[in-house]
Amino acid sequence: MSLTLTAMSDSTASSGQQQWAGSGPMPQPPRGPYISVITNRTTNLLIRGVLLFSVGVFLALVLNLLQVQRNVTLFPPDVISSIFSSAWWVAPCCGTASAMIGLLYPCIDRRLGEPHKFKREWSSVMRCVAVFVGINHASAKVDFANNVQLSLTLAALSIGLWWTFDRSRSGFGLGVSIALLATLATQLLVYNGVFQYTSPDFLYIRSWLPCIFFAGVITMGNIGRQLALYEYKFTQEKTHQD
Amino acid sequence: PVKGSYNKVPPNGWQLTPPTRMTLREQLREKISAAFYRHGLLCASYPVPIILFTSASILTCCYPLLRLPLPGTGPVEFTTGVRDYSVPSHEPQGDLGERPDWYRGLPVAYIQQVLVKAAVSPWDSSLVPVDVFRSPLGRVFNLVEEIRNHVHQDSSGVRSLETLCLQVSDLFPGLRRMQSVLPEHGCLLVSPGNYWQNQRELFDSDPDLLKTIQKHEPKGLHTSATLRDLLFGVPGKYSGVSHYNRKRVVTYTITVVLYRYDASFLGSLRSRLKQLYPSANCSLRDDHMVHVHFKEEIGIPELIPLVTTYIILFAYIYFSTRKIDMVKSKWGLALAAVVTVLSSLLMSVGLCTLFGLTPTLNGGEIFPYLVVVIGLENVLVLTKSVVSTPVDLEVKLRIAQGLSNESWSIMKNMATELCIILIGYFTLVPAIQEFCLFAVVGLVSDFFLQMFFFTTVLSIDIRRMELADLNRRLPAEAGLPPPKPGPLRPREVPPPPRPSPHTITLQTPAFRNLRLPKRLRVVYFLARTRLAQRIIMIGTVIWIGILVYTDPAGLRTYLAAQVSEQSPLGDPGGGGLPPHFGVAPVFHGRDPTSTLRVVHPAPQPTPLPENQSQGHHGAARAGPLPHSPPAIPQITWGAEDEEGWRRLSFRHWPSLFSYYNITLAKRYISILPVIPVTLHLSPQEAIETRHPQDTRHPPPPIPKVSADLQTDLTLYKVAALGLAAGVLLVLLLFCLYRVLCPRNYGQNGVAHGRRRRGDLPCDDYGYSPPVSEISPLLLRGHSMDIECLASDGMLLASCCLAGQIRVWDAQTGDFTKNNSESSCQRDGLDSGAPELDYLGSEGHDPSISGDGLSEDEGYPLRRRTAPSRPTLFTDQPDLTPLIDTNFTLQPPSHLSTPPRGGFDFGGLVERAYMEHEPPSPSTYPSPSSPSSSPPSGALLQRRPSLGDAAASLPQDRVSAVGPQATADWDSSVWAMELRGNLIAAGRSSGKLELWDAVEGSLRCSNEEGVSGITALAFLNNRIVAARLNGSLDFFTVEINKPLALLQHRGTPGRGSMPPSPCYSSEDVISCQLTRSVQCAHQKPITVLRAAAGRVVTGSQDHTVRVYRLEDSCCLFTLQGHSGGITSIYIDQTMVLASGGQDGAICLWDVLTGSRVSHVYGHRGDVTSLVCTTSCVISSGLDDLICIWDRSTGIKLYSIQQEVGCGASLGVISESLLVTGGQGCVSFWDLNFGDLLQTVYLGQSGDGQGVRQLLVLDNAAIVCDFGSELSLVYVPSVLEKLD
């Protein structure tokens, strides 16, 4: 079975964003003797990062499974481990990327001074995630007539996702740029033969990949924003279960 | 359309604006909202018929679903005859209606099974159990060889098996361990010989056959076909390969998988084998060929994404329904919302099926997306809108209004969604089109259900809520304490009215420890939520479900049979068809008992006691010996052998093919009729083939009981064991339950309350939970809302908006007065004018003045050591004579009963009032007299503190005295402080007045400032006044006598108050401005606090300044807030905390002026701040109370309060926090943030919040409560204090 790359394998997204996040100033509290403040803030940041990372890894694994072509109905018991072994670095990369994106979004919101007010509820975030999984599902399972149609449909769906759940210019800009970067990096990786797609139609990769990247960025940004909004209540809920 | 709409004005006068000026959009909007309004009225008026109608329509729409196949992946099959068989063409042929649509093209493979039944016969007693299967299994090699080498030659050429069979390549990469057993690179031909690589030598040298077979079995529970089933071709228990084979017949198959069907080759093979191994009595039909079609199976890798989408779906539903609020039954409405969405989906599928659109999509996969597309938003919006309508409206109108408010947005959203879906429909991708179709129908039916079903449920719910409100409003039964309100009081519902002694019994949580370790708290949390039990229960149910479903003779089979019976192709063909042409169910006609019958084939259709085959084959050896029946293994061929593969797992073939990466999903295989082979082996042969180790096996114990009894016994054993295990499990669970969940479910709360203090269950720390009735004492008299409140522990001064200042004795409920005194020792008599009046206390002063001096000495000590426990009253026998004789009857009863009895307040006061009625019209005593004349208290005017205040008001006014000339009539009091018996009042006119709290006379005033005094601090003999313009004035109070009292304010005894020794009315008190700091702040000063020789001011200009009290020198300007300062706390230990409008809290070191910590805790202003020795407590505008660690600045926890609560805070002891709420005060355990108790202050206090809260030294709490003061005395607190 040839290696089929998952939609979420934005490894470049991770590398590209690492630089970005490095240059972009993170919301660090002013240094000084106020140790407690820093621990509080950094713990918060860390918790959010870990949460986003695990969400990213989980989604990457699940969507990878979605993408595996259905040659065999009954997978032998070892198929899962083989999936893990084929491209083990994909999931951590996705996790890192999603953590970066999820932290970057609220940070940029704060920088730009326009706090994101649109539909800030967990139910909306869940809806967004569900739609994202649905887009992946469609890309994997639905039989389209040709690749152009598939790509156009997915692009429309991704834009619809942004319009339904985000509607912020910064979100759109970030999404597009990260999607482009990630696509470029995937092209490079495939060109260098790290892995390959079963039936590439867009240079070396599938043409729907940018759309999926875009949708993923929007989704992760949504989760990250919600977590950032939630950060005040987070410690409270943990300690005070009433 | 515009013209037409003029005439269509709704009849109920709905249209508010004249329609002429409307745009089309507005008209539409108006119409929609009118329609929704009428619809809401309808729904709320006839709930039951509408719900019935909706249910009926749901059921009707779901009816077509019954025809859909049930979920399940059982294979379907189709039988054709062998003779006229030809490969079906690919093109669908319309006329062959009976053919299933999958029966097209070549099958994946043709399966030819050779069923071998072998036995050693006659059975010899010298044979060992291994002989039952060793030599029969040994014959498999010959057979396989025979089959492999079979060559058929006819006119069309020479054909061997190699040319026909399915050539397989590598095994699936993950299956290396099976390489030795399954064939690779060649014909797919499996037989038991594969265990030994089809080599006779390996078989012969194998010491333990069973072990070899067992070696490849998977460990543990397995649901799919095992290797043993694959190789033997019959289920393991029918193969007879075991030591305990009673029938001594071994059955196995040689399975040949063919790629092409060649009738002549197969025919020659069949005849050849029949010729070699004849089975004469075999009457198996060999003219049927069964085609089995396999559906898609869902494996784990496909299940994971599915499960994930469902998890996301449930999270979505959870987060959505969590938002439903302010209704009677949250769960009920959430359920209704989910039902609405789900049944709309079912309706959509049903309707689509009805109109001939059969769903081809995998329903389980698209279902979550459909739910997400349809969404729960409308339902939530509806609920919110209805709930937010005015409560006092009728239910019908509320529903209607709420519905019409949201009508436009609902319609707009729906139109948008329909548009999007329509766009999706025109992508012309079949799958998406289908999805869109379902979504459209689902949306429409969802809208229908929302409008009819959910709205009606909502109206019922709202009505129930109002009914519940009504019930609650009924007065509680007298004598019984009303039920304790939960920790979260419903916001809408005002606290229930209480009988006049406003007592609340704290229903003690039977399990409360002061300091629980964290892990114990986790355990208690588990116990409280009964998490473990629930998980175990759910796990058990799931497990049972899995067992039932996967049981081969169980539900799954039944379901599969149902499916194939119900499928429209199920009816056997019409007249012109061949008789055996039709679809049979997979496990057709086999009731579960038949599987049992296989073991003991009693009622066989072919009950020939087989001697013929013996004669045929074994005649050469010996004649047919008349053995006893068990001695001769009988080989019988029954109908069940005809299609022996049916006994196999339905995953048998898919798993066999999947090993070679060939899927059977959505494809079919053709199973050819079996070739029966009967083998009879002589005992001689069996002995010859023995392995030397075979004889070492001990002979199996041959039970005397019959086989039936044996199985029965096994059954009983299993049942008994199961029962025992069940009992054990129950016992274990019970123990676990008792350990984890020692909650007392019996409702013995009332008995608890009546128990004596000593009987209460104590925990390990000797702490008995506070079982106390807290009675707030209302101090009435103010005519308007109370503005300022000040106390020095002895006296309590309050000032209302009318400018009237009243002075009360804060010492109430004191044991020296037997709890019977009224709270209002000194009742400030108002004169309607802004002046201070004074009235003597009732019944209190005589006793106090009698032992005034002795009390003075002993008081400070005793206040600490002697709590108000009734038992301690006996320690003070000397007090009884000192008590006013009018109350001598009371003490014994109070001593014997808990303080609860002592608060029969109204009656006592009433009596006291009656007794002292005569002196009341007497003239007001001269202010100077109390200190000199002990009995003067009796002459003072008695005022009841309750009830009669209003009645006696006029006469109070008459007796009002006081220097009215100097009083300021126009301005109001903005700030007030009380020290000793001097009241400092700051007025809006900038005037500072000093009043004598005891005599009610204005002692001096200072009018040097013009700007209004916003805050005052009174420390020692200095008064600091902050003014509106940001300036800070320092005054010095000069008294011609040394200020003995003022300088040690903590020590004065309570008794010394009325006869104040420090200064008399002759003393001249003057107030001089010593220093005025103009422009202390750029903006108005908001807070002013003084302690420990420091004055701290906070201002709107974001800074905090610290001044030294002595020389008015500004020590520090503390900057760090990014908003105005709203609260400051400073105490004797020089701890300074400040909170600002930015929600930040700063802790400062007053000595150095450095910031110790800086935390953001609130969204919005910090409204108040209190520190204890270990923590800082803050409350904010976000209704959150945060508790911070004082040294590290880490938030320990926070308490979410109700909206509009809790701007006021107070700390009673190190671990007791009191907050003010809407008409109540709440006590919290600071260690854990548990709500200990909520005390309601009055009957009418629904809307009034407690704005100020003052904690007095004796753990009493004073709070303002509209125009009343409330004194809450917490007896249990004193115990904690000690």
Automatic annotation (TrEMBL), chain A:
Entries under InterPro entries matching the protein: INSIG_fam
Residue intervals passing through the bilayer: 45-66, 86-105, 148-165, 172-191, 203-223
Entry keywords, A to Z: Cholesterol metabolism, Endoplasmic reticulum, Lipid metabolism, Lipid-binding, Membrane, Steroid metabolism, Sterol metabolism, Transmembrane, Transmembrane helix
Keyword Acyltransferase: no
GO BP terms, alphabetized: cellular response to insulin stimulus; cholesterol biosynthetic process; SREBP signaling pathway; SREBP-SCAP complex retention in endoplasmic reticulum
Biased composition (Polar residues): 1-21
Region spans: Disordered: 1-27
Pfam families, per database record: INSIG (PF07281)
Subcellular compartments: Endoplasmic reticulum membrane
Membrane topology, as annotated: Multi-pass membrane protein
Assigned GO CC terms: SREBP-SCAP-Insig complex
One GO MF term: lipid binding
Domain of life: Eukaryota
Protein role: Mediates feedback control of cholesterol synthesis.
Family recorded in the similarity comment: Belongs to the INSIG family.
Name assigned to this protein: Insulin-induced gene protein
Source organism phylogeny: Eukaryota, Metazoa, Chordata, Craniata, Vertebrata
Name of the gene encoding the protein in the UniProt record: insig2
TrEMBL record, chain B:
Organism annotation: Sphaeramia orbicularis
Pro residues composition bias: residue spans: 480-500, 919-928
InterPro entries assigned: Beta-prop_SCAP, HMGCR/SNAP/NPC1-like_SSD, SCAP, SCAP_N, SSD, WD40/YVTN_repeat-like_dom_sf, WD40_repeat_CS, WD40_repeat_dom_sf
Protein name: Sterol regulatory element-binding protein cleavage-activating protein
Keyword ATP-binding among UniProt keywords: no
Function: Escort protein required for cholesterol as well as lipid homeostasis. Regulates export of the SCAP-SREBP complex from the endoplasmic reticulum to the Golgi upon low cholesterol, thereby regulating the processing of sterol regulatory element-binding proteins (SREBPs) SREBF1/SREBP1 and SREBF2/SREBP2. At high sterol concentrations, formation of a ternary complex with INSIG (INSIG1 or INSIG2) leads to mask the ER export signal in SCAP, promoting retention of the complex in the endoplasmic reticulum.
Swiss-Prot/TrEMBL WD repeat ranges: 1118-1158
Compositionally biased spans, kind Polar residues: 883-896
Lineage: Eukaryota, Metazoa, Chordata, Craniata, Vertebrata
Domain SSD: 302-460
Membrane disposition: Multi-pass membrane protein
Disordered: annotated span: 476-505, 598-634, 817-942
Subcellular localization: Cytoplasmic vesicle, COPII-coated vesicle membrane; Endoplasmic reticulum membrane; Golgi apparatus membrane
Parts of the chain that traverse the membrane: 303-319, 331-357, 369-393, 414-432, 531-549, 718-737
Keywords: Cholesterol metabolism, Cytoplasmic vesicle, Endoplasmic reticulum, Glycoprotein, Golgi apparatus, Lipid metabolism, Lipid-binding, Membrane, Repeat, Steroid metabolism, Sterol metabolism, Transmembrane, Transmembrane helix, WD repeat
